Structures are given as C-alpha cells and as structure tokens.
Amino acid sequence: MANSLLTGISGLRGHQKMLEVVGNNLANLNTTSFKASRVLFSDLMYELQRGASSTSNGLLGSVNAVQIGTGSRVSQVSKDFQQGNLEASGKPLDLAVDGSGLFVTKSGNNTYFTRAGAFSLDQEGYLSDPATGNLVQRFGALGEPDGVNPSFQTSGDSRIYIPLGASIAGKATQTISLAGNLSSRAVGPVSQKIMTATAFFVGGGVSAATSTTLLADVDGFSGAYVAGDKIEINGQTKDGNNPDVTEFVIDDPATTTVGDLILALNTGFPGSNVQLVDGKIVATDNTPGSSMLNIILRDDPANVGIGTDELDSHKFIKQALGKDGDKVLRTAEVFDSSGASHQLSLELTKQEDGSWDMNASLGAGDGNIVDGTVDGITFQDDGTFVSASGVDIEIQFSGQSVTQVMNLYCGEPGTISGLGQLGASSALEVSQDGFSPGELSDVHVDVDGTVFGLASNGLQIAMGQLAIASFRNNDGLISTGGNYYQSSLASGAPEIGTALSGSRGAIRAGQLEGSNVDLALEFTRLIIAQRGFSANARTITVTDRVLEELTNIIR
Known about the structure:
This protein is mostly beta strands.
C-alpha cells in the first residue's frame, strides 16, 4: 500500500517539473532567440512479484513475470533548436543566424555561444552584447594589416574593432583593372587610298602606260612636252601638310618617264606609297587611320610644248577613306599620392591585326602623361586574353614631384577573367585601387558574416568576419541564462568557422530571431500536465482512504 503512495508522489513530482518547464516556455514567449524545452518521462524500477518460466514438458505454456512499477521520473529536459521567426529591427548591428550555428562571444577567458544577436559597439568601439558585455568574436585574419588595404584589427586579437569616426588616409592608384568584352566584330583602321580617275594610255588607247613609258608618248595630250616644261604638284600629305615636292620638271622629253613622275610623288608625299597600277596612279597611306591625303597634278601655265589643262582628266578620286579603328572610351577616377582625385580617359582602338591599343589622357590642369600608351592587347580566336605590351602608365600629376606609375591589368592569360574578345557588343568596366581621404562613418554586415566599415569616401573596408560555431549535439549545450550557452561533454567541442560554410547558415543584418515557443502546443502541454498532476494526486487520495479503512477494521 505504501508503494502506491510513493508512486503517486513520483508522478506529482514529475508533472510538477513539466509544469515548471511549460511555465518557463510561456514566460519566454517573447524572449529573443529563446529555445523551448520539453519534458520526457521514464518509468522507475519494478518490483518483481513472480519470475518468468519457460515451457517444461509441453503440457503447460510459458509463464510471464509479474512486475509492479514503482513510479516515474524525469528522464530528460531537451531543447528544441528549430529556428524562430526572423523579425526586422532596422538596426544594422542586430544580427540573426538564418539556419544552423551560434555566435561566439567571450567574457574574459570564458567562451559563450548565443543565437541572440542584438549587438552594438561599446565605448571603445568593440562589437559586443550590451546586455552582458560579452565581446563578439571574429574568425580568421580578415581585417588585419595586409600592406594593401586600410585595416583596424590587431593580429592575435579576435575581437571586432569598429572605430566609427576614425580617419582614413588616401591611397594613390597603383592598378587600373579592365574587365568585360571588346567586340570581336569591331572594325580595324583603314588606309586612305586615292587614284586617278582615268588611266594613262599609249598607242592610241591600246595599252596602259607603264613606269618606262615616256611622258611625251602618253595618249591624249595636245602636243608634246619639251625640255623645261613642268607639272605642278599640290595637295596634302596624310597629316595635312603640303607636299615636300611641289613641281616636276621634264629635263629631257626623250628620257623622262611616267616612272620619274611616280618617284617624285613618292618623295613629295612621305608616309604614302605611290604606284602605277594598270595605267592609273594609285597612292595608299603606309599606315591606316584618319588621313588628309590628296594629290593634284596640273600642267604649269608657263609650259611651252603642251597646254595647261592636259592633266584635268586624270584627277585623283578617293578609293578608300582613311579612318581609325573602332574605339571604346572609358573614364577612370584615379588618385595621386595625396589622395586627390583625377579623371583619366582611356581610349581603346581596334588595330589592323585584330589587336587593340590603349591611350590614356588627363584633363587640362591635372598633369602630364609621361607614358600613356599600352600596345598590342591581344586575344586568342576563342576570345581569351593573351597579353599586352607596356602596361605601365606613367603620370606626372600637378603638384607632385614624383612620377606616378599605374599598372593596367587586363586579366589572366588564357582566361576571360578580365578582358575578353567575344562576338557580343563591347562592354567594359574600369576599376582601380586608389581612394581619397575619408573617415569611417557606418557599418554593414554581409550574409557571410563579413563586417564592412563604410567610409565617407565611398570605400568599403573589411573589418573582420563573424565566428560562427556549430555542434554535433545542440541539445547537449548548457544554458547559462541571458540567452547564452556553454559547451559540454554531451554537445562536443565547438566547430568554429564562418557563415555559409559547412552546415552553417547565413547572417541576416537588421533582423533578430524570435522565440520558437508554440503557444498552442504549450497550452496543450499545460492541460496534460494539469491532468497528470490531478490524476496522481487522486492516486494518493484513494490510497490514503484505503489505508484509513484498513486501520478502522483493525481497530
């Protein structure tokens, strides 16, 4: 009879604990990142009344044991680590883990883990939990001095230092990077080509004149040249200058040939090649590009042996207009050693061989380009980048005593990681590594946990990357209050890494994780706990009455 009392008491104790757990869940209904708990029961030892027996002779079946239980106990109180709803807060340093993982914090030498990311900066500029003072930890060396980027973190110190208002010195541009596509359909430059409208003939129009044909034998002239007659040479060279030879003198009509006139034209128009082709004089620029090449031949009015208009029918006409190759223009903001900003114009021009050249230029008053040409930017047939020549751009900025060298980066050879040449339209992006002076003004946290400091000069500085811990058994974590946990033998050692690595979730800035308490479920558990408590109390009451009746009978 006494056993039934003890059994009922064990049930009361167990359901009392269940009520406590449910009450705690309901009390933390609005606690940030709170994880609800549940109670699981197990039975206690059993009193053996009769042992089990097996079949002995085939005449009787086996006999089961007779066992009477002695009550129940709380076997475990486990936490539900399912994620709560994410709620927007609007504060950039309110952080939530979307998925698995816990933030890593420290208080002195003790390490604590939490899902509650309502962080802020302390008076020294360190990222911390203002409710406890625990300092948020970072992972890896991101944000530490690397000799290239501004840095605020100290090697060996895992705290995250964000000194808002700190000054940032300017940095001179060292590398200009080109990325994108230069169209393979772009047209290269064209050499200007001019030729006489009609050919020089001999023999009554039967044969085209050759370089050995005497000028005196050319058909169509009324009369014949005599010694001392002149042909005036006018026009413009490729660059727009007057010809170096302005007249051609017939020294001896018996020896002066069309070839002699061609030679005089080649001398008078340097940079162009003059030939006789099928009786026509053809002049072609030696180098492609825009050109002002033009030739005018006229007989000198003072000529004796021939009229003044004999060459009118042999006027030069344009056969091909000289023009530069297709161009792609971009502007890059670059910085000198003092952090002053300058606009650098980059002009990429398609070349005759399919390569590209680039020329850099500065605005008036910004300085002088010492060397602004990059030649032979070449590509494979599949569009991958091959190489470029002379990739250093040298600039003497105004007010600077030292020539500044900037490297033009076009990508890795054999790839299109930078520049490529594909059949699509040209589309280029220009970036560089310099910046003007500024100050740290704001902070932003990316989905991978990278903490960026935003500067007034537009610079985005990596301040570090949040350390995120994962555990083999989250249920094994020990709650220490204040939304914090510590590891235990049951949880295993923390596996610390970064967000979006392994099984770790993403970081959501400006959001907090709410409690995962299910109100309907907790009310149901509350009713069950109440019924269980009442039932066990009834067991004790009935047992007490039976004992009372037995006592009265004995009396």
